[in-house]
From TrEMBL:
One of its GO terms (molecular function) is transmembrane transporter activity. This is Putative integral membrane transport protein. It comes from Streptomyces venezuelae (strain ATCC 10712 / CBS 650.69 / DSM 40230 / JCM 4526 / NBRC 13096 / PD 04745). The keyword RNA-binding does not apply. Residues 1-10 have a biased composition (Polar residues).
């Protein structure tokens, strides 16, 4: 990767009187990608916390796991439903402004949880505010940066930026679990708030909306003037949705990605810690397992981006979903008071597959929907989070009703098999310029 950072495209023709277009040895696109990576890491701190809050909130307020799971499900649903509008808002107001505001909203929502005394306050602060803020700078943020700043190495960059969320999980999970275990859940919530705020200056000072802002061509591409701001962001997002919804590939991508969200964020990220605790495993140990998943998630996602540049994305998706489904079917037999070698194998295997689905899914969105692919991917991401929200709530209810999470593990494994089949039947299509033209 490092060897390819020099700009290799020819210098574009300049209009008379325009500033010179620079051709640097180190392309600014990589700096923008680095800032994006750090930003997503900071925002990912909040995603590490919900699974650690279920038991402490249940113990302190006597709220049911279903009630707490509902707040998490609102968060996950808004995370997804906000993404397509955020992509359109970035076209209208710029990446930097949207992301800075989103980080501030996350910080406010996380801080407000420290004063809550009723379930509706958890839903409002963690569910609504943090959900809206995080959705505004979710994977649609990474997709927008990749589409604007890169022509070459898009798959690799997508994998790296997707892995940023896992890196945030790796960094913050051990710290947050230690805080929850030794000092309670409130200091952990404050830590999340401060982490989001700390990233805002980096975004404002270092991030740029478009290569033309610094008189550059995108990495591996030709220079183009910055397009005029796109008005009617909400209308455009809805228009793109209605046009995409008339095509079969959209529903296959959205359906398979909903299952992806159900089997990762909704199930494992939210319920693995309390499920392991049910079997006598300490919370800090279970949180450590999630952190290890984050380690291998980074490896798996970057590798998936590299594979996506070289192999058919439909087949990659089918393999990823099939392997994930098999692993989930075995998980109930692996949970125990201590970590045994088979459990470690599951953690490594599952970590490699966690969000490896993102680069090939985004590649298929580009193939099918051209210039509107970032917004379409935002809607596909919305389905991912709706699937996650359903299982986050249903998992808590299943635990309350059956006293175990087993039925949810088995159901998710079966759904992954269906997702593998959906990926294989997506039709090939030459990229189109735009759905809205």
């Amino acid at each position: 990767m490092l060897g390819g950072m020099a700009q290799t495209t020819a210098r574009p023709d300049r209009t008379p009187g325009s500033p010179p277009v620079r051709t640097p040895r180190f392309h600014r696109a990589w700096s923008v990608a680095a800032v994006t990576f750090v930003t997503i890491i900071g925002a990912a701190a909040f995603a590490s916390l919900p699974g650690l809050l279920i038991e402490p909130l249940h113990a302190e307020f006597d709220w049911s796991r279903g009630t707490i799971g509902f707040a998490v499900s609102v968060n996950l649903a808004l995370y997804g439903l906000t993404a397509p509008f955020a992509a359109a808002l970035m076209d209208r107001f710029g990446i930097r402004r949207v992301v800075a505001v989103a980080l501030t909203v996350i910080a406010v929502g996380a801080a407000l949880t420290t004063w809550m005394t009723a379930p509706w306050q958890l839903v409002l602060s963690w569910g609504v505010l943090v959900g809206l803020g995080s959705g505004s700078m979710a994977l649609a943020f990474a997709a927008t940066v990749t589409n604007r700043w890169f022509v070459a190495r898009r798959g690799l960059v997508t994998g790296i930026l997707t892995a940023a969320g896992a890196s945030g999980q790796l960094i913050f999970l051990p710290l947050l679990s230690w805080l929850v275990e030794h000092h309670g859940w409130r200091p952990a919530a404050v830590t999340v708030s401060l982490a989001a705020l700390a990233v805002v200056p980096f975004v404002w000072l270092l991030l740029r909306d478009h290569p033309a802002d610094v008189r550059l061509a995108p990495y591996g591409g030709e220079y183009a003037e910055k397009p005029a701001p796109v008005t009617g962001a909400a209308r455009r997002a809805v228009t793109v949705l209605f046009k995409a919804a008339r095509t079969g590939p959209f529903w296959l991508l959205a359906g398979s990605f909903a299952i992806c969200g159900a089997s990762t964020n909704g199930l494992v990220r939210t319920h693995l810690v309390p499920a392991a605790h049910d079997h006598g495993m300490p919370v800090t140990t279970a949180a450590g397992l999630l952190a290890v998943i984050g380690v291998f998630d980074v490896v798996g996602t970057v590798a998936s981006g590299w594979f996506t540049d070289r192999f058919e994305p439909r087949r990659l998706l089918a393999v990823y979903y099939a392997l994930r489904g098999v692993s989930l079917l075995f998980l109930p037999m692996l949970l125990a008071p201590s970590v045994q070698p088979p459990m470690l194998f599951f953690i490594v295997f599952y970590g490699l597959d966690w969000v490896a689905t993102v680069p090939p899914t985004l590649a298929l969105c580009r193939e099918q929907y051209g210039e509107d692919s970032a917004i379409v991917f935002g809607w596909v991401l919305a389905s991912h989070q709706v699937g996650a929200a359903v299982v986050a709530f249903a998992g808590g209810v299943a635990r309350d009703v059956f006293g175990t999470y087993d039925v949810v593990w088995y159901a998710s494994g079966a759904l992954c098999a269906a997702a593998a089949l959906m990926a294989l039947v997506i039709n090939r299509r030459a990229p189109g310029p735009s759905l809205t033209r």
